[in-house]
Amino acid sequence: MRASKSAEHISGAEKILNEKELDTNIMALVQRALHHTKGQPDLINIKIETVDAQKIEYIDALPVSSIDVDSPAQGQNILLEYLKKLGLRNSSSIIKKFKETYAMRGAMLLNADTLERLEPNLDRGIRATYMDAEHTALTDNGCCKNHFQEAVILASKVANAPNIIAEICISDDPDYVTGYIASKKFGYVRITKLKKDGCPYGGRIFLYRGRSGDKYECIDYLEKQHVLVRSVPSAPAKKIKEADPWQFVRDDLQERKESFIYREMKEMHSAQCSHVYSNGRDLLMLASNNYLNLSNDPRTKRAAQKATEQFGTGSGGSRLLTGTLPLHTVLEKNIANYKNTEAALLYNTGYMANVGIITALCDKNSVIFSDEYNHASIIDGCRLSRARTVIYRHNDMTDLADKIRKTPCSRGLIVTDAVFSMDGDIAFLPDILETAKKNHLLCMVDEAHSTGVIGKTGHGICEYFGLTAQPDIIMGTMSKALGSEGGYVCGSRLLIDELCNKSRSFIFSTSLSPAVIAAADEALRILAAEPQHVKQLQNNVQYFCDCLKKNGIYSHSDSAIVPINIGDEKQSMQIAQKLFEHNIFILAIRYPTVKKGKALLRAAIMATHTEQELHHAADIIARYVDEK
Ligand SMILES: *Cc1c(COP(=O)(O)O)cnc(C)c1O
């Protein structure tokens, strides 16, 4: 059917029907022509043709997806992307061709590679006809097909034509700005805005790839082959993109602010000593991991300078390529020696060490038993390893034994912080070692906060408990008491050889720079030679705890971390803010670092704090904690 008004085309439609459905469908088509939004026609032309049922081809509708865009420019960019996916280098020239289609009645048949136009009659173009949806005539009264369905039916036939690689279409309806690109390769992709609102121009381009001389087979198919399309969807698919791809991020940050867990960075304007300058204030530092002040020792600084002079600022490669200097090898020997193990290996950070060790030693056939308060880097290592991870209650040896009994495994690992990084308490390593041995499990301990802090001379958790047996895997970091940066692992030669070959965070990262390594090595030398700094730190912690106790706050610690429980996130932040106003820098630790509702103030003590400073801080802390 074609409806027109003084030679102007208004509407066209066609159906492929059973003979007995003819009456109702003709009525419906006439109604549609008479009530068209473009105006009333003065001529309706209905043509009825017999179709040989044997010659009808059945095809499936193209799968439909929909992309939401805000502007025609964005829409055209998507169109360009899809044209590129088809391997077309001249995609923007193709889109420019749309201008030529505006005056045409049919579609442009374009050689996609040469941009040669293949229509025998350039004004008329190609008219894809003789297609319908299978069954629609049986199930509706003939007028229910919508623009969307008609477009999918046409696009499905066109995509199926010989040598057609895609069709692009922009509607000529001023109120309809949605267009599409369709091809067998990626289906019917609806793009919600391809032209300006109210723009009366549109057109179709069929993209042809093949010898231009073969075009008649394609044109015949498009204009004469009867096609019924199966499973035409009735409405566009759900949108696959939000209008603003960053909206979920805005929502997330807003939510964090509202629940007082939003985080911001503060600048420190001096070296990390017991006092720091920050934003014009002289603050008493109760939050630094530089427990022994080795990051600011003249000897470590000089070692860093010397190494820089000799070896430069960067190491230039990963350890297995060009990044191993004598500095690295010597430090590994010294750390192994300090921890009394066969060998050691450096990582760029403690975080990378945990992730790299656990993923190298555990896989989906392993079970890891992990303390619920373990550091995030251990948690991430467990997750990344794909091992089954069984979390036991914090430092609860009965629960650990229980869970091991209930979880038979052929390969397993127990992993724990030595000093827990937020609460400062110490793992019951003797029990853990015994349990590991009894159950043939490997045992790994993270000494980030214990090296240089606990044990009579600061050697860490084994010295603290006076153990002769050792965990299989001892890891730690040079970024805390050693005042530099980098992670390490100590253990057997067997362990180190395996990590060297398999541990991805060791292998695929440029090694630590000369200054960092030299500083850490000098710090280790000082730590071993001058245990009095460790003693001073331990005395300071006891003194600080005593001062708190005198003020009614009971907090005990054998490490350098003194936790002061608060609970509520908002309150913890308010107290930290009050203390900041008194020039005391202390951190409020909140979810997700600790559990929700378990917020705390975490005081980190240094060997260089004076008793007077600690006394003063304890008094002021007590004033605000009491008020809560
Ligand atoms: C700080 C810390 C780490 C990470 O060490 P970095 O060298 O800072 O990456 C790992 N484990 C524990 C327990 C820590 O406290």
Automatic annotation (TrEMBL):
Its EC number is 2.3.1.47. The keyword Lipid biosynthesis does not apply. One of its GO terms (molecular function) is 6-carboxyhexanoate-CoA ligase activity. Residues 282-621 form the Aminotransferase class I/classII large domain. Pathway: Metabolic intermediate metabolism; pimeloyl-CoA biosynthesis; pimeloyl-CoA from pimelate: step 1/1; Cofactor biosynthesis; biotin biosynthesis. Its cofactor is Mg(2+); pyridoxal 5'-phosphate. It catalyses: heptanedioate + ATP + CoA = 6-carboxyhexanoyl-CoA + AMP + diphosphate; 6-carboxyhexanoyl-[ACP] + L-alanine + H(+) = (8S)-8-amino-7-oxononanoate + holo-[ACP] + CO2. Transmembrane segments: none annotated. It is an enzyme of class 2 (transferase). Keywords: ATP-binding, Biotin biosynthesis, Ligase, Magnesium, Nucleotide-binding, Pyridoxal phosphate, Transferase. InterPro entries: Aminotrans_II_pyridoxalP_BS, Aminotransferase_I/II_large, AON_synthase_class-II, AONS_Archaea/Proteobacteria, BioW, PyrdxlP-dep_Trfase, PyrdxlP-dep_Trfase_major, PyrdxlP-dep_Trfase_small. Homodimer. Belongs to the class-II pyridoxal-phosphate-dependent aminotransferase family. BioF subfamily. Catalyzes the decarboxylative condensation of pimeloyl-[acyl-carrier protein] and L-alanine to produce 8-amino-7-oxononanoate (AON), [acyl-carrier protein], and carbon dioxide. NCBIfam families: bioF, bioW, PRK01322.1. PANTHER family: CLASS II AMINOTRANSFERASE/8-AMINO-7-OXONONANOATE SYNTHASE, LD36009P. This is 8-amino-7-ketopelargonate synthase. It comes from Pectinatus haikarae.
